[in-house]
Amino acid sequence: MKLKRTLYFKFLLAYAAFALLCLILISTLTSSWTLSLLTKDRADSLYREASLISRSYATLVYEDRAELSAARSQLKAIDTYISAEVWLLNSSGKVLFNSRQSEDTPPADVYSDFDPTDSGSYYMTGDFYGAFNEEMLSVFSPITSHFRSIGYVIIHMPMSVVIEARNNILLVIYNTFGIFMLFSLLILLVFTLIVYLPLNRIIRAAEEYAAGNMDYRLKVHGQDEMGYLAGTLSYMASEISRSEDNQKKFITNVSHDFRSPLTSIRGYLEAMIDGTIPPENHEKYLVIVKNETERLTSLTNGILELNSLNSRGLILDYSDFDINSCIKQTAETFGGICTKKKISIELILMGDTLFVHADMGKIQQVLYNLLDNAIKFSHSSSIIKVETTEKNERVFVSVRDFGIGIPGDSINLIFDRFYKTDLSRGKDKRGTGLGLSIVKEIINAHKQNINVISTEGVGSEFIFTLSKSAAEEE
Ligand code: ADP
After folding, report:
1. Which of 365, 420, 429, 460 to mutate to test the pocket of ligand 1 (most atoms within 8 A of CB)?
2. CA dist 462 to 176, 411, 443, 447, Å?
3. Is the minimum distance from the CB of 375 to ligand 1 under 6 angstroms?
């Protein structure tokens, strides 16, 4: 749970940090850029005004009273028009005219320190050598005569005007940013819907699975990574639950299959000890007991075999060998029982030799198990056909009998461990139900296939494939 909170919290934190950073950026960098841009822009237009005045009123520098008073009203009009103070300075810094002072009190201020090159530009900001109480933007244009600077027109405008303009622009930026941040909350919403909520459900499911509740249904739809993750997780859970079921079934089967021979052995032995079975009959029953122990042995061997096949990375000892002769050898080992049951094994083999690439020992075991079943489940005096064919670099081996067959609903189960059809139980009491599982494991380990076609009461055919040996071509 802590993780979820952290993830959401981190996202919110990142969002807040982003907003804060942007605000700081706007209030510092953007603000000062805007101010300097606006100042320059304002200075430009004031400069145009100042140079116009300097050209039109150049002669005022000669302090001709009449001329000054004539120009006064016009310059005052300009002052009002541009809301800025217009000054006229002579070359020694004496103020000849100030648009904000009345005619009666001619300005007597002298700004001998004034040096237009001070600011390195045509304008400066500040209190203009102590003349103002507030910060001013002062723009100056020289009055020239015969290529000589004889005075200056200076226009002063309070910086508060520029600052106010800057503030208005900043306000627009802040508002836009606010709207932008509101919209970007949509991202948070999308994040919540497509990441956070599904992730919550996945974590919940993972916790349920960890607690052993494999039946918990995880509902996350969608084709994105979240959907994929959820799908994988539920698949994993169903696989675990399936393998748990199998495990349980396996143990039940093993216990059952071990218990029945043990019960019968115990029964016979007890009967012999307490005299229920008279000593003259002992030998007969001891043979039965021996058979039962043999069944137990083959059961144990089967389980051990399956376990070794099952263990990951089963090492196959591949070689190229003649499957035809392998079939012949295996068939011969059943000679005795075949004669007894009057069963004949017919071999229909392709070519004299047919080389395959596989683990010979394991394939022999496959053939042995299949033939063993075919004989077990054949009626006496019947025939079993073993056939080899070849197609597309693969060899098909078929073992076919005309015995009891397999009921349709059991076909998919016969390869399961310990499975025996009801039909076969009466006919084969010693079977363990492991033979076909071993066959399947071996064929799968070879990355080959095994199939069965069977009709109840008619017979069965098991067909498996092997890869043809490349060496044989030469
Ligand atoms: P078992 O040791 O019982 O033969 P298998 O795994 O070899 O174990 O076979 C599982 C079951 O499949 C058998 O018990 C039988 O019911 C059925 N089966 C296998 N082969 C045949 C066959 N050729 N004909 C009929 N049933 C068969």
Report:
1. 420
2. 77, 11, 12, 17
3. no
Where does a domain end: 311, 334, 359? 311
Number of domains the chain contains = 3
Between 318 and 96, name the one with better pLDDT: 318
CA of 402 to the centre of ligand 1 (A): 14
Question: How much is the average pLDDT of 181-199?
Answer: 88
Residues 326 and 468 in one domain: yes
Tell me: the pLDDT tens digits for 430-468?
Answer: 677 888 988 998 899 899 999 999 999 999 999 999 999
154 in a domain, yes or no? yes
- Distance, CA 285 to ligand 1 centroid (Å)? 27
Q: What is the pLDDT of residues 79-115, one digit of tens each?
A: 999 899 999 888 888 888 888 887 766 667 888 888 8
Pocket test for ligand 1, best of 416, 424, 425 (most atoms within 8 A of CB): 424
pTM over 0.85: no
Structure tokens given for 183: 């919209």
Ligand 1 touching residue 424 (CB < 6 A): yes
Question: What range does the domain containing 71 cover?
Answer: 2-164
Nearest to 377 by CA among 342, 403, 340, 344: 403
Q: Taking Cα atoms as reference points, which of 362, 351, 382, 271 lies closest to residue 319? A: 362
Domain stops at, among 141, 164, 187? 164
Q: Which atom of ligand 1 is nearest to the CA of 462?
A: 23
Residues 30, 116 within the same domain: yes
Q: Which residue type is seen at 265?
A: I
